[in-house]
Inverse folding.
């Protein structure tokens, strides 16, 4: 009896230890298999969105479900390839004017340093000019463009995964639980893609009005960053400022673009997205932040982009089992554990 009582008291400790070991093993698997697992997850989310669009086409125009899947994915491929083409042209145009931008940067710094000396501020002019000359802005533009292109080059693997997933979706017959999870995730993804497109479109309009060199590339960056909660829209708002500074120096365009982009992200993110999305994912904001850090550490930038749908999927899976349901409530911000 005493041994049984002691074992019952140690059961929670054993469960916690097992959860820690399972979590550590899962993280190791995620890190070492990300080259394959990450494209598969992207393909899975693409197939969910395509499935939702296919059902809409089937309902509205009586289009066969399988044909709707093919057309939806073909549209995704066309958009992705067009984005690569325009990004490559934007980078080529920007880099070709590197000498002009470097001269403008030096002129602006000379102007700032001369005004600083007028107000009695002593600065090392040579140090500032040498530091400005070593700024890796052009390398950053090239590396970012290369990152986007490398993501697109994984389309072959993603396409292969999508084809296999489509083969399992040909009849649209799924168990109710799987169908429920897919509908909630696809609803989130469709709304997120749409609001991200709105943010990118209006960003492109604002930047095109002031003839920004990398307007299209920055709009694509805005679309991508909008998938990262809280941090992404802020980075997207300030990212055009260095490019504008290199083009025009510190003039009125910087202030106008900053104000307009702030308004765009406020309206799209805080008004439209909140109204359309509601509480579909039912995730606590602190949990979202923690999961954003976790997935970014595991899968880098792509992990940050996929953090919310991945965490939501895990929460929905936890809800299916009585033993893991308390964890699902914890992710939703409803603390089920008694201290």
């Amino acid at each position: 009896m005493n041994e049984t009582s002691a074992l019952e008291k140690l059961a929670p400790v054993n469960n916690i230890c097992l959860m820690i070991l399972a979590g550590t093993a899962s993280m190791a698997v995620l890190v070492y298999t990300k080259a394959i697992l990450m494209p598969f997850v992207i393909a899975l989310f693409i197939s969910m969105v395509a499935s939702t669009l296919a059902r809409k086409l089937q309902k509205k125009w009586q289009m066969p479900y399988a044909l709707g899947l093919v057309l939806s994915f073909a549209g995704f491929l066309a958009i992705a390839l067009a984005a690569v083409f325009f990004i490559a042209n934007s980078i080529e145009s920007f880099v070709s004017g590197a000498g002009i931008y470097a001269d403008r940067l030096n002129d602006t710094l000379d102007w700032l340093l001369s005004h600083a000396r007028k107000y009695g501020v002593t600065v090392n002019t040579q140090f500032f000019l040498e530091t400005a000359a070593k700024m890796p802005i052009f390398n950053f533009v090239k590396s970012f463009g290369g990152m986007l292109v490398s993501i697109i080059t994984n389309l072959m693997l993603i396409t292969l995964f999508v084809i296999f997933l489509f083969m399992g979706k040909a009849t649209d017959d799924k168990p109710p639980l799987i169908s429920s999870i897919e509908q909630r995730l696809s609803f989130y993804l469709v709304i997120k893609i749409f609001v991200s497109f709105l943010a990118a479109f209006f960003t492109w309009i604002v930047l095109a009005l002031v003839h920004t060199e990398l307007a299209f590339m920055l709009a694509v960056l805005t679309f991508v960053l909008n998938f990262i909660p809280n941090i992404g829209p802020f980075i997207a708002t300030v990212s055009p400022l260095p490019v504008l500074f290199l083009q025009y120096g510190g003039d009125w365009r910087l202030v106008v673009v900053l104000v307009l982009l702030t308004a765009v992200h406020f309206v799209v993110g805080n008004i439209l997205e909140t109204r359309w999305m509601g509480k579909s994912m039912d995730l606590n904001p602190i949990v979202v932040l923690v999961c954003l850090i976790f997935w970014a550490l595991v899968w880098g930038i792509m992990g940050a982009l996929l953090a919310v749908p991945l965490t939501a999927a895990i929460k929905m899976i936890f809800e299916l089992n009585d033993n893991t349901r308390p964890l699902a409530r914890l992710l939703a911000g409803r603390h089920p554990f008694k201290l």
Summary: The two ends are 27 Å apart (CA to CA). Residues 19 and 39 are 27 Å apart (CA to CA).
